[in-house]
């Protein structure tokens, strides 16, 4: 889940609740989100982003996660053309 608010400055946050699992699983979920964010960051508009990890994130393959991540950003219109 991604929250986006267009602003002049860029702020980024990664969140994983205890519903994800233990500390190891939560940290892994946040690392995965950060990695996907770094890949698409040159194509993003400026603004505030909050990335919330869901339990399904740890169960998907890399290609599925990447596609879902990019589709979510496109839906929010946060990607530059």
Dominant shape:
globular
Strand content: 15-25%
User: Between the first and last Cα atoms, what is the distance in angstroms?
Assistant: 22 Å
Output the CATH class name.
Alpha Beta
Biggest β-sheet strands, sense, barrel:
3 strands, mixed
CATH third-level topology = Ribosomal Protein S5, domain 2
The sequence of SSEs as H and E is EEHEH
How many separate structural domains?
A: 1
Number-wise, the strands total 3
What's the arrangement of strands in the largest beta sheet? 1-3-2
How many whole angstroms does the radius of gyration measure?
A: 12 Å
Provide a descriptive summary of the structure in words.
This protein is an alpha+beta fold and 81 residues long. It has a single domain, classed as Ribosomal Protein S5, domain 2, CATH 3.30.230.10. It contains 2 helices and 3 strands. It has helices at 23-40, 62-75; strands spanning 2-5, 11-15, 48-52. A 3-stranded mixed β-sheet has the order 1-3-2, with helices on one face. The two termini are 22 Å apart.
Any descriptors?
single chain, 81 residues, alpha+beta, Ribosomal Protein S5, domain 2, three-stranded mixed beta sheet, 3 strands
Question: Can you summarize this structure?
Answer:
By secondary structure, the protein is of the alpha+beta class.
Present the secondary structure layout.
Layout: E1 2-5, E2 11-15, H1 23-40, E3 48-52, H2 62-75
Parallel strand pairs: 2-3
Antiparallel strand pairs: 1-3
